[in-house]
Amino acid sequence: MACKEQQHSMLITAIRQRLPHGRPLLLLLLLLLPQLLLGPVRSAPQVPCYFIFGDSLVDNGNNNNIASLARANYPPYGIDFSAGATGRFCNGLTTVDVISQLLGFEDYIPPYARTRGQDLLGGANFASAAAGIRDETGQQLGARISFGGQIQNYVQAVQQIVEILGDEDSAADYLSKCIFSVGMGSNDYLNNYFMPTFYSTSSRYTPDEYATALTQQYSQQLRTLYNYGARKVAVIGVGQIGCSPNELARLSTDGVTCVGQFNSAIQLFNREVVQMVNDLNSLDGAHFTYINAYGIFQNILANPGDYGLRVTNRGCCGVGRNNGQITCLPYQPPCPNRREFLFWDAFHPTEAANIIIGRRSYRAQSSSDASPMDISHLAQL
């Protein structure tokens, strides 16, 4: 404090030497003192709020206090995150953390589990690990908040926002300026369709039929979000789950080649989602966009060295023999060179990979990264 006062005194002395007349000096000091005392002013975020829906790729703590095996609130998760093991399935930042930074938010968007009242005006993260479009998805892992449940939580949040802003019209106008990101579908394959021991979907649907059924339900759920104020919505496609360390260890012929059965099914789903996004844009005032996570991931896998990555078929943290466990073994030290790993555990990317994906979601590096626009342009609408 003394140092700052000394700097202010020196600056005032210098001004006096240049401006001998009293009134100009007084006027200049009145203009400068707020900046001298408060320091640089941070610009406002590009949008007033950011609402996040999804699964373990973006969950940041909603599963911490529920009876679920899909939890990440213990070390070595969060080893590179300032707050430690918060529930993020990563060593550091998730993709939505990166996007929130790029949107200009001073803090990361908090989990809905601990966000109420005025804090909701900045947005909330509703994501839940093991969640799917289908309500039964992930049930073998215990409790989780399906996409339908996440929407119910959002509806409750909207009711609070209406009370805070005074009426529904004010709330609708406010929400129409916010960014919504939704990334669902991974678990509907990993923890449903490709798990015949627990689920019957693979015996009841062909891959084409399942993609269609999933997308039809997804569309209705997104229309509910629209009915409750969502207008700028980024729909994140499903990535190449057939290239995850778990699937490589279980089903790859050489431990490196991605599992085609998985990726082919995902591509069917993603194509349906692209058409769904186009259809949703016919809604009045709607601006839905598709983020091509599959293509971004494919590009990273094809050119890992361009991004400083070296290891693409193994997780960095300990996940048991042959990457067979889903999450990191508790308190086991991870690899020291995690910035060179694509995957953190058997399924989830490292912070290094999330930074790449988050940046390309926000501002497209390739024309195929987003359709019809990236998140930076969505924010400008």
From TrEMBL:
Stored InterPro entries: GDSL, GDSL_esterase/lipase, SGNH_hydro_sf, SGNH_plant_lipase-like
Its family? Belongs to the 'GDSL' lipolytic enzyme family.
E.C. numbers: 3.2.1.51
Protein's UniProt keywords contain Amino-acid biosynthesis: no
Top-level EC class as recorded in UniProt: hydrolase
* Record's protein name: GDSL esterase/lipase
Organism equals Apostasia shenzhenica
**Where is it located?**
Secreted
**Record keywords, A-Z:** Glycosidase, Hydrolase, Lipid degradation, Lipid metabolism, Secreted, Signal
The Gene Ontology terms for molecular function here are: alpha-L-fucosidase activity; hydrolase activity, acting on ester bonds
The leader peptide range reads 1-43
Coarse class of the primary localization is secreted
